[in-house]
Amino acid sequence: MLAFEIRDLHKTYGHEVHANDGLDFSIETGEVFGVLGPNGAGKSTLVQQMVGLSVPTSGEIRLRGQPIRPHDRRVRRLVGYLAQRPLALYDLRAREAVVATGRLRGLSRPEAEREADALLREIGLKDRQDRLVGNLSGGEHRLVGMATALIGSPPVLILDEPTNELDPVARRRVWDMLMRRRSEGTTIILVTHNVLEAERVVGRVAIMARGRIVAIGTPGELKERLHAQVRLEVALRDGVPQAEDWLAAGRQIGERRWSLTLGRDRLGEAFRRLADPATSAEIDDLRIASPSLEDVYLAYHGEEAREDAR
Amino acid sequence: MRAEGTLRAPGTLSAFWVLLGMQLARARRSWRQYIIVSSAMPSGIAILLRAMTSHPGEALALQIISGNVVLSVAITAIAMLAQQVAWMRQNRTFDYYHTLPVPNFAVILAILVAYLLFALPGIAVVLTVGALFYGVHLVISPGILPAILGTGVALSGIGALLGIASRDGELAGLTGNLVMMAVLFLGIIPSGRLPLPLVALSDMLPSTYGVRLLLHLLTGQANPYVWLVDGLMLLFFSVVLFFAVERLSYRVG
Q: Which of A55, A87, A106 sits opposite B101 (nearest CB)?
């Protein structure tokens, strides 16, 4: 059964801004679906319509087969939503915020308290649960928001940038939590620009740019399109005066680090150069990788940027 | 997959209590401000007017005290709430409530009632100051509570509407203060001394009925006619303003 069907969705602000420009895709129940794209691509506009906070200019969104209406009560029961800035909880203690949200989802007080305690432990905030949310750091504030989205175990989660502002440990914890929810059959829609991390969790992704979907598929399918390519990353030792020309032709990604995207047919030639004793003595670090989801993302947005330049 | 029937939503009343608790939590950081702001100006005005009149009669004294009690409500319910609502809209704070399975009128009622409750310490201070400086005997009857409740919901309805209509918190603060001034003038000056256009304006403000009802109650009179007319007017304003706020805060872009 389809969790969401989005049909020819347009959202226009005024006459000028086409925030969503003909989106058409669906999300299966139990799927983890990533929505990737740069700032201003229309990702938040899309999810706000999916939770009924905003009405499409034209087109339709269906949740479990039924069209959603503005402020739809059914959507509010089925979907846990993490907004970009959960400010409503500012004056509450962290645990109170999670318990209150659970009760507003219809849990009894004891149920809400039990679930809140489990979630705070899982998310790593147990020792800070009595702090006022407004006194927590930006990252901790988001973790509280995350716990409020998860309490009551809604079968669909829509999370807008869940790992923004988080430190690496907290990020890891959030992704682990999402993977556990995935294995329990929760449908998860993730809006993010953290492509590298999303790749571990998502089943399918849509890459958005300027209100449209420029690519959609599993990370594997999208990478397939760059299949004939390999990424070679070379770092040179301290004191090496300059990179050889063939290396310097690549993208410089660090002080002494270059990245080259090569056709597979040119790999042999590159290896011969690297194997040269003079060259290999200069090399500090060497990586060869097949393209990542990030490369796919950059490839699409590279095209966008070139179009803009024209 | 979870059947939709197993997913719950809270009862309206229990949602209201949770939401009211969340709103009252605001006092944790700002209770000092609420007490000072809601008591300083109305008590100050009561004291000032006492200092400028040599022998205020009991009728005038009670008018001044009732007017300042309502001013105390107007400060939190109009000026502060207008700013708060404008800020909540600007920051999309309502999105949190509008994505949970709770009725919007429980959300709005909780906000309006919370800002009315924030005025209670100020009201107590104004009544005490009034009794002390004017030497009048105030009858504290149980009817005062519903009178303040009705006045408070109606005034916080005005505050919330100003907040919804303003593009940002600064503008809301400004218009809130202007409306509060109107409430102050029209509430304290007896309507017999007002020019006709202002009488008409004062008839359109719920605070007028609140002051009248309060005046009536504080003198210990129990004229059922006054009760009925002013009480019904307050009820009318509360209901109309409440539903206006409920609808308008719920519009989607």
A: A106
Q: Are residues B83 and B117 in contact, defined by beta-carbon separation less than 8 angstroms?
A: no
Nearest CA in chain A to B91: A87
On whether residue A303 sits in a domain, the answer given is no
End-to-end CA distance of chain A: 43
Asked whether the beta carbons of residue A105 and residue B252 sit closer than 8 angstroms, the reply is no
- CA–CA dist B144, B90 (Å, integer): 36
Q: Say yes or no for a CB contact (<8 Å) between A54 and B96.
A: no
pLDDT at A15 over 50: yes
Same domain, A149 and A261: no
B94-133 pLDDT, tens digit each: 999 999 999 998 999 999 999 999 999 999 999 999 999 9
Say whether residue A155 is in contact with chain B using an 8 A CB cutoff: yes
In-domain check, residue A59: yes
Q: Any idea what the CATH number is for the domain that residue A273 is in?
A: 3.30.70
Of B14, B19, B100, nearest to A76 by CB-CB distance is B100
Same-domain status, A79 and A191: yes
Residue A233 sits in the same domain as residue A192? no
Residues of A in contact with B33 (CB under 8 A): none
**B96 compared with A276, residue with greater pLDDT:** B96
Q: How far, in Å, CA of B29 to CA of B20, rounded?
A: 16
Interface contact A74, partner B, CB < 8 A: yes
Q: Is the sign of the CA dihedral A154, A155, A161, A163 positive or negative?
A: positive
The answer to whether the Cβ–Cβ distance between B96 and A83 falls below 8 Å is yes
A37 assigned to some structural domain:
yes
A236 and A213 in a common domain: no
Q: Domain limits at A77? A: 2-221
Q: Which of A45, A99, A104, A182 is best to mutate for the B interface (most B CBs within 10 A)?
A: A104
How close does chain B come to A76, measured CA to CA in Å?
Answer: 5
Q: Is A85 on the interface with B (CB under 8 A)?
A: yes
Give the per-residue pLDDT at B162: 94
Residue A153 sits in the same domain as residue A248: no
Q: Are residues A212 and A281 in the same domain?
A: no
Q: State whether residue B93 sits within 8 Å of chain A by CB.
A: yes
The number of domains in chain A is: 2
Domain boundary among A221, A247, A276: A221
Report how far residue A142's alpha carbon sits from residue B64's, in angstroms, rounded to the nearest whole number.
Answer: 49
Tens digits of residue pLDDT in A122-133 = 999 999 999 999
Q: What is the 3-state secondary structure (H, E, C) of B163-176?
A: HHHCCCHHHHHHHH
Indicate if A246 and A116 belong to the same structural domain. Answer: no
Is A310 a residue whose pLDDT tops 50?
no
The reported pLDDT for the residue numbered A11 is 94
Q: With a cut of 50, list the residues of chain B below it in pLDDT.
A: 1
Q: Which of A204, A221, A238 is the last residue of a domain?
A: A221
What ipTM, to 2 d.p.? 0.87
Asked whether residue A297 is assigned to any structural domain, the reply reads no
Would you call B100 and A104 a contact, using CB atoms and an 8 Å cutoff? Answer: yes
Same domain for A114 and A28: yes
Q: Report the gap between the CA of A70 and the closest CA in chain B (Å).
A: 7
Provide the β-strand partners of residue B127.
none
Q: What is the mean pLDDT of residues A200-223?
A: 88
pLDDT score recorded for residue A227: 67
Chain A residue whose CA is closest to B15 = A104
